[in-house]
Amino acid sequence: MNRAPKSPLPGGDVSALMDQLSDVGKLAREVPRVRPFTLGQEDFKPTAWMPGLERIGEKLARRMRTVVEPLVEGRTKITAETIETVRYEAWRGGLPDFTSLNFYRMRPLKGGMLVVVEPEFVGGVVDRFFGGTGVPAPRRHPEFTPSEDALIVRLTDAVVRALSESWAEIIALTPSLVSRETNATFANLFRPEENVVIQRFSIVPGQGRPTVISILYPLGSLRAVEGPLTAKVHDDAGPADAQWRSRIAVALDDVRLPVRSVLARPKITAAQLMALKPGDVIPISVGAKIPLLVANRRFAHGTIGEKDGHAALLIDTLEKGQTQ
Fold first, then answer.
1. 204 and 322, same domain (yes or no)
2. Which one of 51, 61, 90, 135 is most buried, counting C-beta atoms within 10 A?
3. Does 20 have pLDDT greater than 90?
């Protein structure tokens, strides 16, 4: 006759142990599943450095006017639009099959930079240059003419130089061309999963169609200069700043301010005021020091007197904080 082996634990201890094992099983089922994660694909909210990049965009928009206006031969409105951060593959998927993609290195920034120009704008400028209406004819082949290629080189190189000047307060950039593409399918300039920052500039010429020039930065390159981008606007100390200060100083020299002095401040009752008539005398007491007020602020004290037959005020003392 077979007998069941005896448990080394008393019955109450065995029951408690089984309850604990049951609780462990429940905890194991409640642990969330591990989620796959690829480095470089995390969402990133560039709120910290965005104001710095927006400031650079505003400066670049002003500089781009000197680049675009000679090409369109007229006044042009250029506006820096809201900055956007997307994955490169998503942005590339929305591009047309034919466009102008210009890839530059911007040392010491990493990853390069992309300048995108719409082909309709290029064709319109070239058409107007040769006496046309500024509306190019439909393209038979997805390629630029030699004249359009020359215009793209002139335009993008000038935009990149203006960009370097706009970045000067943050970091000195040295641009160099890497390649030019026209087909977005072959534009493997960044990794498909890489996040890129898009800065668009809306261009509205006086004559011709509006267009957009886009500049793309890899997000990683901006992280490297996040500190300077989040800092406050730097105070330039170059020749342009000294010239501006000189002009302001000259302009301020011609500003006219109201200057007056108060000899006395007598007080009378309302009844006396209502009873005043021609010939009445109001007694006043002139102090030894008369205040001189400039724009309603006390500027100095002086002594009343006469000079060249006119009443005059001799400045005795200046208020603290005023310069002589």
1. no
2. 61
3. no
| Residue whose token pair is 């993609």 | 101
Mark whether 195 and 260 lie in a shared domain.
no
Residues 123 and 196 in one domain: yes
Q: Decide: residue 281, CB within 10 A, 0-12 exposed, 13-18 middle, 19+ buried.
A: exposed
Report the domain count for the chain: 2
Indicate whether 29 belongs to any domain.
no
Amino acid at 83: I
Q: What is the DSSP letter of 73?
A: T
| Confidence at residue 175, expressed as pLDDT on a 0 to 100 scale | 92
Is residue 233 domain-shared with residue 322, that is, in the same domain? Answer: no
Torsion angle of the four alpha carbons 26, 30, 31, 37, in this order, in degrees rounded to the nearest 10: 150
- DSSP-H helix ranges across 200-305: 219-223, 226-230, 239-253, 270-275
Q: Which residue bears the tokens 């408690």?
A: 16
Other C-beta atoms within 10 Å of 90: how many? 12
* Assigned domain for 182 exists: yes
Question: How does pLDDT run across 67-88, given as a tens digit for each residue?
Answer: 999 988 889 999 999 999 999 9
Per residue in 142-177, pLDDT (tens digit) is 889 999 999 999 999 999 999 999 999 888 999 999
- Residue 287 and residue 265 in contact, taking contact as beta carbons nearer than 8 Å: no
Half-sphere exposure of 184 (CA within 13 A, CB side): 17
The pLDDT value recorded for residue 42 is 47
Q: Are residues 172 and 310 in the same domain?
A: no
pTM: 0.58
Q: Which residues contact 184 (CB under 8 A, 6 or more apart)?
A: 92, 95, 96, 97, 99, 101
Please compute the mean of the pLDDT values over residues 9-20 and round it to a whole number: 56
